[in-house]
Amino acid sequence: DTTPNTTDPANKDNTPADNNGEPTKVTLKVWGPSEDQAEGGWLIKMEEAFAEAHPELDITWENSVCSEGDAGGLVTADPSAAGDVYMFANDQLGTLVTAGAIARLGGDALKQVETDNSQTLVNTVTHTDGNVYGFPVTNNTWFMYYNKDVFTEEDVKDLDVMLTKGVVAFQWGTGWYSGTFFFANGGECFGPNGTDAAAGIQFGADNGGYEAAEKMYKLAANPNFKDDASGLGNAGLKDGSVHAYFSGSWDYGGEKGLKAALGDKLGAVQLPVVEIGGVKKQMMSFAGSKAVGVNPHTANPAAATQFAAFLASVESQKSRYEMRGVIPAATSLAEDEDIKSNMIAVAEINTMANTSVAQSSIPEMGNYWNPIGNFGGLCASGAINADNYKEQVDQMMEALNSTGL
User: Is the Cβ–Cβ distance between 162 and 170 less than 8 Å?
Assistant: First the structure.
């Protein structure tokens, strides 16, 4: 492993030199979403606070826009020219590690990640080599929105009960959602932690796949369980034609958000249970994270690591929540009074803790999306039924675990 461990600020080799009491000049290139970089924005404020906390450094900041979703491509295009510190979505971790574009965490940095986050969150930034490579700053998952006039708090714990009382929409044709029934019934992606490539994707007969598929085609045939295609769930919850659907925090706020449309009628909770094979099973969503990474090619490893840790600190996450409404990853903030009173934050945090599995970030995960999305789409269209569902599961398993994909 040639990736330098650039991530322990206590490491003397990484500590800025003492220039006879003069601050050490460093330049830090920081890449992150545009929303954080407006004048007076969160990133700018955090840079000012960090500089104030580190008078031993004379920092020149060079900020560039790079969304978390684009980091895998942009950073790896030329790691030596990329940001010293950047934000990334955890599904790109394998790509970043393979390219030698992200530093593994050690010492105090690793301790911070392990102390501040749930094990599920730590798993999202852990590579197949067992090392941790990023500081999580926010969760990335989906939960359930519902209309409180139609469903009680007890109803929304059980999908089958809900379907006797109202209309629920679900994104059948998207692998990020439609794997939930397989996970609920014992399916796994690359082992229990999502890091064992050799274990493959196990949604077949031996892992409850037939029973999960049987439930899926029956749900798809239920007129109260609609296919959430082209935003039907969001629009339907607003106009009253849909009473619950599955999505994330991004659908909540703003002028076009659910809160403005439904007001106090809007509810949000972790995922319900569903009956599969005669037994109540817990629906599971993917748990991902958006995190801060350190570039191993940085000329200023200590300062870069210290700033990445600062950016992901509990205090910084709380500040970002206050400024932008971004729900924090740090588990201690679930007890924060402001955040506890936010229904969306509670739904997301509870989902991450109780009704999710870590989304694998290994390259083989690329095999997952199309076969699962296709299977869900075939259920929605009625093409999967009592006569062919086992055969369809077998074909899906072959596609999921084919290296040719």
Answer: no
